[in-house]
C-alpha cells in the first residue's frame, strides 16, 4: 500500500521551513522521529504533542490514518489510508525547546499494537518506544543524550534451571549515550556473590544500538531455591556510565533439584501403572504433557486434541498424583485458531509454553496453510483469560509449519517443531513475544532443516514428537510413518539461503540450514512410535500401537534396546520423566493420564562395593559420562596420573557429562565419594 502522509495546513506552514532549513534557534534542538509500522500500517494514527496535552490539542504533528484519529483505538473500522505496511518513515525535523518534555500519542484501530518510535535529537538516537495493545502515550525529553550511557534491556537467561547445570548469562544491552561505544565491561552477580566480569572490545555502537551478549563465564548454581541474577555494564570506553539509574537489570531464578535418573530401575521387576486422571478430570483425547519448570509445584499440564473447529484445551494438574491433587480445564476463546488439533506442548525455561497445532490451516479456509507454533504465558492471570480482545490470550504465533507433529524447547522463546506437512524440522525463535492478544511477528527468526523426511500419520491422529537433550545438543525426533527415530545435532550446519515454503508474513529471517549432522538411530522394533523423552544416556519412546514404553541405550553405538514397559493399553502418546524420575504419559484412546512406577526401590543408599561406576565413551574425547547407583549428591573427582584434580562435581553433574576441554591425553582416575564417605575408583583413558 502506498504511504499517505496527512498534515494539517496550519501545521505545514510552520513545519515546512524546518524540513528545508533544519536550523534551530538557540535554546532549541532538532528532533526527528522514525516511525516503524507492522503488517497493518493502515490501522495506526499518532500525534506529537506538548507534554500533558491530550490528542488533538496543540498538536505539533500528526501522521498515519486520520480515519482512526484520537478516539479510534479498538474500533476495528479497518478503513484504508495512512501509512503502508512494514515501513520505517522518518518524520520531521522539528525545532523543539531543549530539555522540555514532549508526548507521542498513538492509537491502533484493531487494538493489537502496530507502531514503534525512535526519537533522534540533533541526529543522535535519544529514545525508543514499542507500541502495544490499543495504543499509548510516550514521553521523551528534547535533549541530546549524555556521552556514555548503557542499559541492559533484556535477559534471556533461564528463570528456572537445575543445580549443577551451567546457566548461560545472555541478553541484550543498549547504548543510549552520544559517544560511539568501542568497548565496555560486562558484569553479573548472583545474590551477594562477587561480580563476574568480562571485557567486551572491538565494537562500534552508535546511540540506540543494541548488542546481543553471551557472558563467557556461565553460572553453575550449587544450591537449590530462589536466587537473584543482576547484570550490568561499566567501564564504557574506559569511563564511567554517566546515568547509573538504568544500568542494571535483575531477574529472579529458581534452581531445581536435578531429576534423578532411575530409568534402569524399570528394567527389573514389574513396573506398576497408576491411572492418575481420566475423562472425569476433563481429559479429551490427550496427546502430550509437560511439567511447569518450577518442579516444586508438581504442576503438570496436559493438552487435549478435541476438534478442529473448537480448538484444543489444556488441563492443569496441581500436586499431580497426590491425595490433594486439583485440576483446571482451560480453553482459550480463540483456540480454534491458535490451538487447533494440538499435537504437543513444551514448557520453556522462562515460564512460557508453546503448543504445536496439528491443523493444516489455522484459519480453516486455506491454502495458504497459515499455521504454526503458538506461544503462551502460563501466568493464570493471562492464559485463557477473556480480557485481551478477539485474538485471545496467546502471546505470539508463527505460520510456516502446517500439520505440526511435536515441539521441543531449546532456550528462552526458542522451540523446535516437527513440520508434518513438509516432513521437515524447523527451529522457531519467537524472540520477543508481542504480548497477549497482539499480532506482531516480524522479529522472528525461523530456520528450516529439510535433509530428511518425517512422515505423519495420514489420519492426523498419532503424533511424531521430539525432545532436545540440552546437555549434548542432540534433538531426537520420532518419525511415526517411518517407524523410526532420528536425531539432529543442533550445533551443526549453517544457513545457506532463504526458505521457499511460504512465508505468508514478514520475518527478520526465514532460511534453510544445510550441512548439519543427523542420523537414523532406531529403524526396527517400533509399530507406531509417538512420544519421546531423554535422561542421561537413556532414550524412551512410546509405541501407540502396543502401549509400550521402549528404553534405549544412548551410550551404545548401536543404540541397543534395553527393555520394554507394558502399560496394558494401546493409545499411548506423549511421555515425560517427572520430578522424581518416574515416567508419566497420556493415552489418547483411554483418555487417561498415567504414571509408571518402577518395580524396585529407587535410590536406596548403597555401599561402594555394590555401586560400581560406569564411564563412557572409553576412550573419551570431548566429554566423559558417568553412571552408577550412587546418591546424586555424591562427589565425583577426576584425577590425573600425578594425583592432581582436573575436575570435580556432583554425581548428578557427572551423569550429564564431564567436559574434557583442556585435558590432555593419558590415564586418569575417576573417584566418587558418597555422602557417607565410601569410595569407588574407576580408571578411564582420555584421548584428545
Q: What features would you describe in this structure?
A:
The chain is mainly β. It contains three helices and 49 strands.
Keywords:
4 domains, single chain, mainly beta, Neuraminidase, Immunoglobulin-like, disordered N terminus, 3% helix, 5-stranded mixed β-sheet, Lipoxygenase-1, 688 residues, 6-stranded mixed β-sheet, 43% strand, 3 helices
Topology:
Layout: H1 9-21, E1 28-37, E2 44-50, E3 61-64, E4 88-97, E5 101-108, E6 115-121, E7 124-130, E8 135-141, E9 150-155, E10 160-162, E11 170-175, E12 184-190, E13 196-200, E14 210-214, E15 225-234, E16 249-256, E17 272-277, E18 286-291, E19 300-307, E20 311-318, E21 326-330, H2 335-338, E22 342-347, E23 352-357, E24 374-377, E25 396-397, E26 404-411, E27 414-419, E28 424-429, E29 445-449, E30 466-469, E31 474-479, E32 484-489, E33 494-498, E34 509-514, E35 518-522, E36 529-535, E37 538-543, E38 548-553, E39 561-566, E40 572-577, E41 583-587, E42 592-597, E43 614-616, E44 623-627, E45 635-639, E46 645-650, H3 651-655, E47 658-659, E48 666-673, E49 679-686
Parallel strand pairs: 10-16, 29-34
Antiparallel strand pairs: 1-4, 1-6, 2-3, 2-5, 5-8, 6-7, 9-11, 11-14, 12-13, 12-15, 15-16, 17-42, 18-19, 19-20, 20-21, 22-23, 23-24, 24-25, 26-27, 27-28, 28-29, 30-31, 31-32, 32-35, 33-34, 36-37, 37-38, 38-39, 40-41, 41-42, 43-44, 44-47, 45-46, 45-48, 48-49
Amino acid at each position: 500500500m502506498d504511504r499517505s502522509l496527512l498534515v494539517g495546513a496550519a501545521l505545514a506552514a510552520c513545519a515546512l521551513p524546518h524540513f528545508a532549513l533544519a536550523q534551530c534557534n538557540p535554546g532549541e534542538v532538532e528532533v526527528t522521529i522514525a516511525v516503524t509500522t507492522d503488517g497493518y500500517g493502515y490501522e495506526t494514527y499518532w500525534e506529537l504533542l506538548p507534554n500533558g496535552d491530550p490528542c488533538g490539542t496543540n498538536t505539533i504533528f500528526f501522521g498515519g490514518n486520520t480515519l482512526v484519529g484520537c478516539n479510534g483505538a479498538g474500533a476495528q473500522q479497518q478503513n484504508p489510508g495512512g501509512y503502508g505496511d512494514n515501513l520505517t518513515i522518518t518524520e520531521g525535523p522539528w525545532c523543539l525547546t531543549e530539555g522540555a518534555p514532549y508526548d507521542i500519542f498513538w492509537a491502533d484501530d484493531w487494538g493489537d499494537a502496530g507502531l514503534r518510535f525512535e526519537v533522534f535529537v540533533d541526529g543522535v538516537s535519544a529514545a525508543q518506544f514499542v507500541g502495544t495493545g490499543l495504543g499509548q502515550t510516550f514521553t521523551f525529553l528534547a535533549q541530546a543524550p549524555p556521552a556514555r550511557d548503557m542499559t541492559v534491556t533484556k535477559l534471556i537467561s533461564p528463570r528456572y534451571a537445575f543445580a549443577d547445570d551451567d546457566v548461560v548469562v545472555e541478553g541484550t544491552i543498549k547504548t543510549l549515550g552520544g559517544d560511539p561505544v568501542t568497548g565496555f565491561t560486562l558484569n553479573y552477580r548472583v545474590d551477594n556473590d562477587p561480580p563476574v566480569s568480562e571485557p567486551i572490545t572491538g565494537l562500534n555502537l552508535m546511540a540506540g544500538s543494541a548488542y546481543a551478549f553471551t557472558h563467557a563465564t556461565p553460572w553453575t548454581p550449587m544450591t537449590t531455591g530462589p536466587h537473584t541474577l543482576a547484570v550490568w555494564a561499566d567501564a564504557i570506553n574506559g569511563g564511567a556510565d554517566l546515568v547509573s539509574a538504568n544500568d542494571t537489570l535483575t531477574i529472579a531464578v529458581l534452581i531445581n533439584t536435578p531429576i534423578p535418573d532411575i530409568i534402569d530401575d524399570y528394567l527389573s521387576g514389574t513396573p506398576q501403572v497408576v491411572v492418575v486422571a481420566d475423562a472425569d478430570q476433563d481429559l479429551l483425547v490427550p496427546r502430550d504433557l509437560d511439567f511447569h519448570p518450577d518442579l516444586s509445584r508438581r504442576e503438570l499440564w496436559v493438552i487435549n486434541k478435541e476438534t478442529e473447529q473448537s480448538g484444543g484445551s489444556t488441563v492443569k494438574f496441581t500436586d499431580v498424583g497426590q491425595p490433594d491433587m486439583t485440576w483446571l480445564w482451560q480453553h482459550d476463546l480463540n483456540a480454534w485458531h491458535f490451538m487447533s488439533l494440538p499435537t504437543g506442548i513444551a514448557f520453556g525455561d522462562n515460564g512460557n509454553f508453546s503448543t504445536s497445532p496439528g491443523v493444516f490451516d489455522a484459519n480453516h479456509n486455506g491454502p495458504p496453510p497459515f499455521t504454526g507454533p503458538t506461544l503462551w504465558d502460563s501466568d493464570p492471570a493471562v492464559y485463557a483469560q477473556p480480557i485481551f480482545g478477539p485474538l485471545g490470550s496467546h502471546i505470539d504465533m508463527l505460520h510456516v509449519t502446517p500439520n505440526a507433529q511435536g515441539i521441543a524447547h531449546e532456550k528462552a522463546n526458542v522451540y523446535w517443531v516437527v513440520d508434518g506437512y513438509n516432513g521437515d524440522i524447523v527451529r522457531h525463535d519467537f524472540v520477543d513475544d508481542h504480548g497477549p492478544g497482539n499480532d506482531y511477528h516480524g522479529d522472528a527468526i525461523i530456520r528450516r532443516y529439510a535433509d530428511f523426511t518425517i512422515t505423519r500419520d495420514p489420519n492426523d491422529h498419532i503424533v511424531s514428537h521430539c525432545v532436545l537433550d540440552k546437555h549434548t545438543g542432540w534433538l531426537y525426533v520420532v518419525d511415526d510413518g517411518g517407524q523410526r527415530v532420528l536425531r539432529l545435532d543442533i550445533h551443526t550446519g549453517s544457513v545457506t539461503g532463504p526458505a521457499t515454503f511460504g512465508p505468508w508474513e514478514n520475518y527478520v529471517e526465514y532460511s534453510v540450514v544445510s550441512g548439519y549432522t543427523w542420523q537414523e538411530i532406531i529403524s526396527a522394533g517400533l509399530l507406531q512410535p509417538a512420544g519421546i523423552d531423554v535422561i542421561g544416556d537413556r532414550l524412551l519412546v512410546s509405541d501407540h500401537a502396543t502401549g509400550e514404553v521402549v528404553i534405549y541405550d544412548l551410550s551404545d553405538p548401536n543404540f541397543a534396546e534395553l527393555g520394554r514397559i507394558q502399560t496394558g493399553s494401546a493409545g499411548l502418546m506423549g511421555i515425560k520423566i517427572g520430578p522424581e524420575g518416574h515416567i508419566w504419559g497420556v493415552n489418547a484412546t483411554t483418555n487417561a493420564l498415567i504414571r509408571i512406577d518402577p518395580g524396585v526401590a529407587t535410590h536406596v543408599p548403597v555401599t561402594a562395593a555394590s555401586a560400581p561406576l560406569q564411564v563412557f565413551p572409553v576412550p573419551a574425547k570431548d566429554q566423559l559420562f558417568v553412571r552408577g547407583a550412587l546418591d546424586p549428591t555424591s562427589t565425583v573427582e577426576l584425577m590425573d596420573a600425578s594425583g592432581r584434580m582436573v575436575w570435580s562435581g556432583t554425581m548428578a553433574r557427572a551423569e550429564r557429562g564431564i567436559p574434557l576441554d583442556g585435558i590432555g591425553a593419558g590415564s586418569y582416575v575417576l573417584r566418587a565419594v558418597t555422602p557417607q564417605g565410601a569410595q569407588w575408583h574407576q580408571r578411564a583413558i582420555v584421548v584428545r
